[in-house]
Amino acid sequence: MKRILIVKVTSMGDVIQAQPVVADLKRAFPGVKVDWAADEAFAEIARWNVGTDRVLCAPLRRFKKARRWADFKAIWASIAELRAEHYDVVLDIHGVYKSAIISFLTRSSRRLGYQAKDLGERGAAFAYTGRFAPRGDVNAWYGMRETVSRALGYTLEDPPIYNLQVPRATHTAADAPPPDASPLAILFHAASKDDKKWPTSHWAAVARDLLGRGYRVVLPWGSLAEHSEATDIVAQVPSATLLPQMTLTGIAQLIQDCQLVVGVDTGFVHLAHALQKRAVMIFIATSAEHFGNHTPYRSVSVGDGRRVPSIDEALQAIDHVHAVPTVPPASLSVGATPSAAAA
User: Fold this and answer.
1) HEC profile of 160-220
2) 28, 89, 204, 343: most buried, per Cβ within 10 A?
C-alpha cells in the first residue's frame, strides 16, 4: 500500500471528526502516503493535519450556488490534479454524488464506498468497486474509523489522533489585543439549522455563570441572522463581548487560545474537541450519544435529540469539565458507551 485517497468533502464537523483516519492508516501501513479530497470551503482543515500528504480541493459548494465560470475552471483544473497520482485505494467516507464522482475520476481500480442503503444519495453507488457497511451501534465518529479499519483489514487503535496544527495568529503592535489574564470562554450559539439552536435566554444564563467564574465571554457569528442572535444575548449580558466577523482560521486560532468552549452541534465545537480544549456540546435535534464528543473531564455532550436540554444540564456539564478527576479517566464517561468514550 503506497498511496490512499480519502474523500470527505463536507461539512465542517464531519471533516474534522474524520481526520483521525489519516493517523489510523499511517499506523496500519508504515510509509503510506495519504491524500484528502474536500470542498474548498473546508480544505484548510485537512491541511492542518500534519499527517496528510496532499489536499485536493475544488469550489464545489460555491459553484453550485453561483455557477461562475472561474469556479468551473477551478473544478476542471482540480480533476487533472486528482488524476496525477495513482491510488492503491480510494475511500469515500462521504457517500453522496459529488464524493462518488471524485472517487470515480481517480485512476484507482479499487474504490470503496458505503453499501447502497447507507449512502446519503443512493445513486452514488455507481462509483464503487467494493462496499463497506457502517457501524450503527456506536458513536458515529468511532464507527467511521472502525468501518475503514475493517475494510482494509487492520486493527483499530485508540485514542484517535487528530494531528491538527492550526497556524498561529500573527499580530502587529497596532492590532495586538490588550493583555488580559482572565481565561477565555467562547459560546458557539449558531447552528446550520434552526432546530439545533438553544434559546438565547439559556445562552444568557450560561454567559452570566461563566462571567461569575472569572471568564471573559465572547460570541462569534458568521451571518446577519447569527449576528442578530448574538446581539440579543449580549443585550441580556452586557459584559459579554460580541466579536467581529472572523474567518475559519481566525476562529480556529481563537479556539486554540481559549480555556473553554460551549456550543450547540456545530463544527467549531468539534474542532475544540479535536484541539483538546475543555468543551461542552449541547444537542437539541440530534443525539449526543451518537454524534457527540465524550472525553471525561474535558469534553462532554448533553441532550438526546428529543427535547431542549435545560440550563442546569449545561452548567453541570461545565462543572464536569472543570473537575479534577479522582479516578483514571478511561473508567469514566458522560453519556457514552466505552467505545465512544475513547472517541
Assistant:
1) CCCCECCCCCCCCCCCCCCCCCCCEEEEECCCCCHHHCCCHHHHHHHHHHHHHCCCEEEEC
2) 343
Cell numbers placing 78: 482540480
Cβ atoms of 56 and 27 within 8 Å: the answer is no
218: domain CATH number is 3.40.50.2000
Residue 87 lies in a domain: yes
> Does 175 fall in a domain?
no
Rounded CA separation 20/25 (Å): 9
Do residues 59 and 123 both lie within one domain?
Answer: yes
Verdict on whether the full-model pTM lies above 0.85: yes
**127 and 255 share a domain?**
no
Distance between start and end Cα atoms, the chain = 26
Domain count for the chain: 2
| pLDDT for position 72 | 53
The string of DSSP letters for 42-109 reads: GHHHHHHBTT--EEEEE-HHHHHHH--HHHHHHHHHHHHHHTTS--SEEEE-S-SHHHHHHHHHSS-S
* Domain hosting residue 284, numbered range: 184-342
Residue 135 forms part of a structural domain = yes
pLDDT in tens, 195-229: 999 999 999 999 999 999 999 999 999 999 999 99
Tell me the per-residue pLDDT of 149-175, one tens digit each, with 9 for 90 and over: 999 999 999 999 999 999 987 754 444
146 with 240, same domain: the answer is no
